[in-house]
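Listing S7. Sequence submitted for prediction.
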Amino acid sequence: MEHWLCHRKLVTTSETYVKTMSLQQVINARNALAKHIYAQLFGWIVEHINKALHTSLKQHSFIGVLDIYGFETFEVNSFEQFCINYANEKLQQQFNSHVFKLEQEEYMKEQIPWTLIDFYDNQPCIDLIEAKLGILDLLDEECKVPKGTDQNWAQKLYDRHSSSQHFQKPRMSNTSFIVVHFADKVEYHSDGFLEKNRDTVYEEQINILKASKFPLVANLFQDDKDSVPATTPSGKGSSSKINIRSARPTMKAPNKEHKKTVGHQFRTSLHLLMETLNATTPHYVRCIKPNDEKLPFHFDPKRAVQQLRACGVLETIRISAAGYPSRWAYHDFFNRYRVLVQKRELANTDKKAICKSVLENLIKDPDKFQFGRTKIFFRAGQVAYLEKLRADKFRAATIMIQKSVRGWLQKVKYHRLRRATLTLQRYCRGHLARRLAEHLRRTRAAVVLQKQYRMRRARLAYQRVRRATVVIQAFTRGMFVRRTYRQVLMEHKATIIQKHMRGWMARRHFRHQRDAAIIIQCAFRRLKARRELKALKIEARSAEHLKRLNVGMENKVVQLQRKIDDQNKEFKTLSEQLSAITSTHTMEVEKLRKELAYYQQNQGGDTSLKLQEVVESLQTELQRAHSERKVLEDTHTREKDELRKRVADLEQENALLKDEKEQLNSQILGQSKAEFAQNSVKENLMKKELDEERSRYQNLVKEYSRLEQRYDNLRDEMTIIKQTPGHRRNPSNQSSLESDSNYPSVSTSEVGDAEDALQQVDEIGLEKAAMDMTVFLKLQKRVRELEQERKKLQMQLEKREQQDSQRVQVEQPKNDLDLDQDADLAYNSLKRQELESENKKLKNDLNELRKAVAEQAMQDGSSPSSPDSYSLLLNQLKLAHEELEVRKEEVLILRTQIVSADQRRLAGRSPEPSINARTSWPNSEKHVDQEDAIEAYHGVCQTNSKTEDWGYLNEDGELGLAYQGLKQVARLLEAQLQAQSREHEEEVEHLKTQVEALKEELDKQQQTFCQTLLLSPEAQVEFGVQQEISRLTNENLDLKELVEKLEKNERKLKKQLKIYMKKVQDLEAAQALTQSERRRHELTRQVTVQRKEKDFQGMLEYHKDDEALLIRNLVTDLKPQMLSGTVPCLPAYILYMCIRHADYVNDDLKVHSLLTSTINGVKKVLKKHNDDFEMTTFWLSNTCRLLHCLKQYSGDEGFMTQNSAKQNEHCLKNFDLTEYRQVLSDLSIQIYQQLIKIAEGVLQPMIVSAMLENESIQGLSGVKPTGYRKRSSSMADGDNSYCLEAIIRQMNSFHTVMCDQGLDPEIIQQVFKQLFYMINAVTLNNLLLRKEVCSWSTGMQLRYNISQLEEWLRGRNLHQSGAVQTMEPLIQAAQLLQLKKKTPEDAEAICSLCNSLSTQQIVKILNLYTPLNEFEERVTVAFIRTIQAQLQERNDPQQLLLDFKHTFPVLFPFNPSSLTMDSIHIPACLNLEFLNEV
């Protein structure tokens, strides 16, 4: 022992080390061992005392005495004083709750004249010590830290509990702390707390004590396993004893170190002590010290009064002096003492008035009782007096009942004697009848035996004759069957010969018909080709006047004619070759026929001799066949016997294999079941972990929203402070949406400088400003940066304004000279407009021409061109020429006018820069097709090379383009005709190649078909499968090549698109700068430009300045009633269409600003309407729909499985909004939590009254428990009571609102699951706390109410939401109230039925259960003990009440919309006219 007190053993995986300990560690180890020896010795003494006091008699009750130290405070207070004062706090709380609170609350509730007595409530001090992260938790946490010290623990206490009223820090010490107890303040020194709390006892020291030579020491440290057999005999008789749980837990054998600390053990033992006190009836003995000096015959009155006041004795004396120990409810008093009421008083319907009159008549002293609101209070002895009067009344009634009962008993005795006489007579007559029946049965049995014997003898003779007949029939039938078999065999062979012959004839007929059909088809196709050739020749002749425009077409037609001639020549040569081959074939057939006839004539004479020889050979072969048949029969019989033996052996082996197979199947099933159970357990664990993670995340979101709300409130306070005199105010045009964003951007007007912040700190005070100082210090740096940027931008703006003013001053005289020429320029602009309109008409005609040619090509693919298309082309060319002549005349007129105007201008002033620098073409920004633009560019280049005077004739170049455009129409028509002809030729060639390929495939298939006919059926199937596999592999390879090509093209196009988007952005930026400069110099008279009408692409465009108006009209000021007749979730669709347009133009700032403003606007609306269920539901559905839209149109394949082709076109192209989807998901969680909070706030006041107090089943009002002190209802009688129909109506309104607003069905199910859980928790908690409702009638009422709620769920298709499962504890509690509670079988039934209730809840309900009347018994203590014994194995939580504020984690499943964006209509009531459809 000396060695192990100074050393300790360290065990690793490979080796064991012995380490010396320091002096402090040795002292701590010695103290811990001494404490452990003391604890074991104390437990040994208690055990032996209990064994000595044990008796076999049945015990009904017990008396426990608890003696503890008083409140201790010394100069140096350590861990021991802390634990003692903690125990005193708990006991003082129990004393206060038992004496003060219960009595005073009862008197105040019943409105009895009473003066309030103030008492000290020490629950905050207890929470400081034992609550989560209290002093004991922080002490245990510091003990678990490897290098924890007392100073660190004291620092944690200062940081954590500095704001508590019951915790103080001494001024002159950093290692002490002060706790304000109910009696006085106590200063504790933290030195030594950790080591005393650990109380480490090493295993080596315990092992030495176990091996001690003294038997007492060795028995003290034996393991718990050795003591188990000794306690088993006493466990059998536990049913006759009282099961009392020890207040101190049993000590287990120590390991290397105690797993539980001393503080944890002390707290658990203290909780067990409080449970024992709460389960018993406590009586208190207070010891008062007469003086502090411990002197005899010396009494200090002040000290005694102080102790009495601290213990609450004075208040107890006052309550007892003025109290009423007995109390009855009016209804119960009336039911109990109704026998004392006179008949005339029963005519009154008011029970209170009856009770008052009865008491006034029976008890003359009015001070002996008091009338409360719902109860009557009596002084001591008055209830006994009333019971005596009631017993006298009942005694008189009992005598009357006894008289009637005794007469009835004599009548019963007479009737019993009469029934016995009749029974004896009946038995005698029955014996005689049975004897006669036995004689008749024996005679009948003899007759039956004779009949059976004679029948057997006749049956044997008949069977003998039948067997002989069957043998004769078998032989005769075999003979007839063999004859029919030979006949059938001959017929079968004849049918085979007929089959082959008929097949040959059918094939020959088919070949003749096929050859004839081919000849007819060739002739018909030749005729059709000639007709087509004639039609082509006619068309070629009709198109001769177009040779000047398309010379190549005539050459190609000639080439086609030459090809047709060559094909005709080839056909003629082939037909000649075919005729020659047929002639040679007929000649050869005739030669063969002649040779066959000659051969038959030569062989006709020798046939008879040959036939005789054949007959003889056949006879010899027949004899050989008979001999072979006999041999074969013998071998067949031998083989048959051998096969039978082998079959028997195989059957035995098969039986053995079947047995093995069944065994293996059973093993496999067992393994599969075990694996399935393991997998199911793992899945359940994973689901639980997922739900826990989801609930943690949603709690974090809730905490974040709470902190954000707190931040908003602090910011509002700061703005109010800033608006005071001497401070800056925010500008009126500053948007408040920026500060509410999840990605905040700080402006210069939101916060001030550091000096302003310090002034605000001085004004507000250190306590308020300390919380916002960190925010100010973080924002000051950002404010300075924004101030510098603002100054730079202001300097640039001033420079730009100076340059613009100088430019205006220079150009002002120039503009004065141009005022005279406005009329001419306006005229020229009008003419340009007309030319543009005519150019549009020509382009429309060209498009119609293209469409007509394309449709004609699709209708008639064989002919490259048709007469209708050519006639249409001719008409268009004629119109184009006419328009060209008209435009030439107009151009000449305009040319003369422009030349004269230019000469006047040159004469009036000196040459100036070109007007092109100041003016812009009206059509410059119009969209033009790429091919048209290239053709127009080439035409302009050619005209510029030919004519050199276009520069001075037309300053804008517009007239030249118009004229050249008219010339280019003819060229475009020519090019299109040539392209069309080329396309038709290519299509014809492509079709020819396809026909040839199909012919080759057809030939191959015919060859394979002929080959497969020669094969067996199995080989045919295999050959067909191989052919199909080869075909599919070829197609697969082709498709892979196509996919690779398409992917390459897609990559190239994406790269080009990125390049073009960059170029477009640069051009847009440049155009924006140039347009801002040109707007000042544009003409006053603008020319209207017509736009082409395009289809709505599901995008909405708005200007950046209109964003605040959009948010105000669509979010802030919007009410759900405005969208009652529109599509559900319309604001979400509109916002997505605006986001899609911003994505289409690749404006990330616009997307960020719109989403941020929307989220902040929704938060403001919800903050303003925090108690409006309809508004909250409206924005929850819209937020979820916007989240679904961002997922559905994100481009992710996982969300696009249910999209249509039109919806896939509406996907986002440039941006990935995954982060915003997460922000919207968090916002949806916050809205859902606010929705649940609103609904629970509406339903919670109704639950107790509707589920427990209201009488929904008529007739149960008279069946109420009697004979106890009934608690009052939570509401006045009939004032604010609710019924179950009110809850159902409220839930109906919730359901209709959510369905009308388009909320997802899955979210609706989760909402009602949460609400039903809250109904269950509130109802069950009230049931566990109220004794008057724990009765059979309440269980019946609950069962009815729950069935009504389940029926409502089924009527709304919400039975699959899991709401019924949340009501399971309440259902089981109602069943528990109605079950029988007497026998052990009833206990087993209750334990198996109430699996959703904890052990504490079941025992609490059984303790509170009250019988309905005097004939029913209460639940016995033995029955409750049997329930507790059977439920000991359960690992139930220690919490009695359910947490009705618990919230299930919410899920937002993906629910895509079937609507397309282009089908959505925006109503006018939204005032969104500034949105443009794209």
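Caption to Listing S7: primary sequence and predicted structure tokens for the chain studied. The chain has a mean pLDDT of 75. Residues 744 and 846 are 56 Å apart (CA to CA).
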